[in-house]
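hey can u check if this looks right to u? its 391 residues, i copy pasted from the old doc so theres a chance i mangled smth
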Amino acid sequence: MESILSELNEEGFILPDFKNSSFEASKQIGDGVEGGLVGKRPRKILLLLDGLGYNLLEKVTSKAKGLKENMSMFENRRVTTLFPSTTINILSSIYGGITPAEHGLIGTNLFIKEAGVMINSLYMTSAMDSMGPKLKINPLDLYPKGNFIGNIKARNKKAIFLAPKHLVGSGLSTTTFSMADTMPYVTFDDMLIKITKLMNTEDVDYVLAYYDTLDAMEHQYDPSSPEVEQTVYTIIQSISKVLLGPANENGFNIVITSDHGHVKVIQEDNNIFTSKSELNDFLEVPLWGEPRAAFLAVKENRFESFEKYFEKNLLKIGRLVNTDEAIKAGLFGLPKVNESIRYRFGTHIIIPRGNKCIQYLFPGMKETPFKSKGRHGGMSSDEMHVPLLLY
C-alpha cells in the first residue's frame, strides 16, 4: 500500500527531509561533526532567523543588486524544516537535538492531560487567557530538556545562547537552555555586537543566537511586502559587514538557517470553528495545534462517520491524515512516539491546502478582523523550504 508520505508528496505537499534540514545542521553542531552541513572550523555560530524562507531570500537576492555580492560569500543550500513548521516545534527540535516524535511540542495550542487544559505552549498559560485569570504552567513538567547543550558540554566546550530580552525566562528558554549561559539582547545591532565580542574571547566555542523580528514583520505585513523584503536585505547586509571578518580571524564557521517560511493568508481563507460547529460532535476535545496544521482527537466510535463527514464538507480546506499512519511513516522523525505524549498527536491531522488555515474560537471569544497576514505551519514550498547559509 502506498505510504501516506508518498500520497502527500504526489499532492504537492513538501515533506521534511531530516538528513537535509535545519534540524540536521543543528544536530551536527551539537554532536561536533566536522564538515557536513556546518563546515570544518572548530568553532561555530548558529544563527536562527525566525521566518526566513528560502524562496523569500531568493526573491530578495534577485531583486537587490547589492545583496548578490554578500550572498556570494556564503554556501547557500535549500533545506527543509520539520512538520509542523511552527516555531515551538522547530525550536524544540533544533535547540533540543531531538525530533518532534520525542518532544511532542507540535503546536502553539496543545491539549495537555497533565494540566487538564488547552495551553499556549510558548507562554505556558491557558489558551483561553483572554477569558479570565492567567493559569501559569511549569514548563519543566512539559518540556523535555533534550541533549543539544549536554552533548556540547560533554566535549568540554562552552556555548552561549543569545535571545531577545523579552523571551528570556520563557518556557522554551527555561528548559532547553537550562544548561547554557544565556545572554539577552535588545536590538539586532546589539545581538551582532555581542556575537562579535564573544568571537573575540578565547573560551567560547559555540554562539547560538535566535532573532525573531523578521517573523513578527511577516505576521504584520505579509511575506511579499516591501517592509519584509527590506528587513531581509538589511539583515543579510549587516551580518556580512559585521560578522564575517571576526569569524575569519577567530576560526568560526557561521551557520544561518530558519525554522520556517511564511504564506500570505487573507480573511476568506481563514476557516472558523466554534463549540457549536458540527465538527465538534465528532471530537473528544476541541482541535489544537496551528492554524495551518490542526490535530484532532476523534471519538473512538466515530472514526468512519467523521472521515465521511470530512470528505463531504471539509475536503476543500485541507488533507485529512490518519495520525497513526503519519507516525509510522516517520513524518515526525521516528516511527514511534513515546506513549506518555502520544495523545498530543491526536487521531487525525488536517493539513490545510495552499494558503488556507483553521481557527477555533473558544466559548466567549469573538471573531475579530483578521490581523495576521503571514501564517505558518503548513507544507507548501514557501513554508517548508528554508536556507542553510554556511560561511
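The chain has a mean pLDDT of 90.
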